[in-house]
Amino acid sequence: MKVKICGITNMESARVAVDAGADFLGFVFAESRRKISPAVAKQIADQVPTHVKKVGVFVNESPEIINEISQYVGLDFIQLHGDETPEIASSLNRPIIKAWSIQDKIDPTTFSCKYYLIDSPKGAYRGGNGIAFDWSLLQNLPIQKEKLILAGGLNAENVASAIHSVHPAIIDVSSGVETNGQKDPIKIDAFVKIAKQAFQTLKESVER
Q1: Which member of 6, 113, 172, 189 is catalytic?
Q2: Structure confidence by residue, pLDDT tens digits, 29-60
Q3: Per the residue annotation, which of 23, 76, 119, 172 is the catalytic one?
Q4: What CATH number does residue 75 fall under?
Q5: Domain N-(5'phosphoribosyl) anthranilate isomerase (PRAI): where (predicted)?
Q6: Structural domain tally of the chain?
């Protein structure tokens, strides 16, 4: 029952996300308007509290480069958002988050991962397209809820519904907390607060 703010590109956005209560920060090292250099990511990561986990997002990158960047930046997780094979995943030096588009053939049994992320259909880039999808499509996926990360078109207006519909372990947002392509402190704060409250409400309802 955690929140990941992805597409962090500067210290100010990272600080706002941490102060709001985010549990994960995502740095995109693939082609994207949110792409960040390893050097800048390291400057940010070095100032992030250890309880907030740093995730590096890669798309069809070589294992050698992924491992080099993850070691240099100090990543806690590696997110594979491309067509990586299970063999590549097993050669990496951090726990893996494997991402799929909802339109992909999803077979989590082929990957040994900490989490599985399900995103919207592909757009200009592999993720962060700001498009929601039909969450009922997740009902029959063979993924344990405690390993499921939900992404794709989430924002402060729909995140509570998403949590109550899907019951994911983690909610992942990027464009849904931006204004004019930049991270918006007000939107980040609102998103995290609403998501955390929805997770708490869901937990209480399950425990009754």
Answers
A1: 6
A2: 999 999 999 999 999 999 999 999 999 999 99
A3: 119
A4: 3.20.20.70
A5: 3-193
A6: 1
